C-alpha cells in the first residue's frame, strides 16, 4: 500500500482511500481523501485525535472545512504530518452522529464539544448541529453561567448568524459587559476562553508578538504538529536563517517525523533559499543519494567546498550508470566541478560515463556533451577518442579502426557492424575476421566466434 493510501472502516466494511491533502486550522485537522470510485471523504480530527469520517458530494460555503482549506495550513499528500495523523489514529472508524455526541460529551468540555460540532457542517445536517449547540446555550442560561452562555452565542453568531437565536440573544443586555470585553479588551479573556484566544492570535499571526503568544500556547498544549506547520508556513512566507533554524530545532525534537521529506518539499517552494539547499546537499552526500545531488546541483548555483566536491566525486567514481541511469544534463554539472578540482581523475571518470552514453546516444551528441570540457581541459584522451571516432564514422574506408575503438569502449554490437563492413570491403584482410572472432567471444557467442576464427585460418592458409 502506498504511503498516501489507507483504510477507513465503516462498521465492518473496509474503504480504501487515498489522502489528497490535509488542513491544520484552529485546533482541528481535516484530511481530504478519495475512494477508488472517486468519492470524497473528510476525516475530522481535534488536536490530533480522530473523531469520525463522512462522505460528501459538496461543501457548504463558509463552513469550517472550507475555511480550513482556505485559511489554514494546508499540506499536499504524501506528507509526514498526514502520515503521523493517520498512523497514530489507526484504525480510523466511522461513527454515527449519536455515537459522536457521546464521544464528545465523554471526552471534551461543553465549549470544546460545541466548537467541534461546527467542524461537521457540510457532513451532518446543520439543523442537528445547531440544536445541539442551542441546548448547551440554554443549559448555561438556566444555570446562571452567563459568560459561558455568551461564548455559545458568539459561536452561534458565526455558525448560524441568521437564526432568530443569534439575532435576538446577541443583543441581550445581560451579555453587554461580555460583549464589551470581547470588543475592547480581548486579550484579558484569553485565559478564560482558549478557543477565542487561538482564533484571535492565529488571525493576527503575522504580528510577531501575536505569533509568539500563539507559539507559547501551542507549546503548553504539546501541539507539536501545529508548531511545525506554523513554522513551515512562516518560513515559506518570510524565509530567514532564524526561522529555518527554529524549524530544524522542532524537527530534531520529533524523530518520528520524516524531516528530510519536509526539507525536500520546502526546497521546491524555496529554490533560492540557500541554507535549506545546502543542508539537503549535505544529507544527500551523507546518504550517497547521487541522483538527488544531480537534480539539486542542476537547479542551484551555490559553490561546493573541496570536501563536498571530493565526496561527490567519490560517488561519481562508484556510480554504475548502466544500473543507475541518469539524465546526461543532470550529470554534467557535477562532473565538470569534480574534474576542474581534480583533473587527474578526468579521463577514467569520463570514459565510464561516455561508455554508458554510447548505449543510448550517437557520437555527435556525445561530442557536443564533451565540448565544454574539451575547451577547458586540453588533451583529454576520451575526448580525442570520440573526435577520432566521429571522423572515422564519416569515412567508410577505415571501419576497422572505428570498430576497434568501439570495442575498446565496450560497444560490441557497433564494433561487429564495423568489422563486418570492413570484411566486405577488404575480403583478403584477415584482421576483420580476427576482430569479429574476438568480439563475438566477448559477447559470449562462442559458436559465432569459432566460425570467424575458422574463416580467418582458412583465409591465412590461402594467402
UniProtKB/TrEMBL annotation:
InterPro entries for the chain = TPR-like_helical_dom_sf (IPR011990), TPR_rpt (IPR019734)
Q: Which UniProt keywords apply?
A: TPR repeat
State the TPR repeat positions.
396-429
Q: What is this protein called?
A: Uncharacterized protein
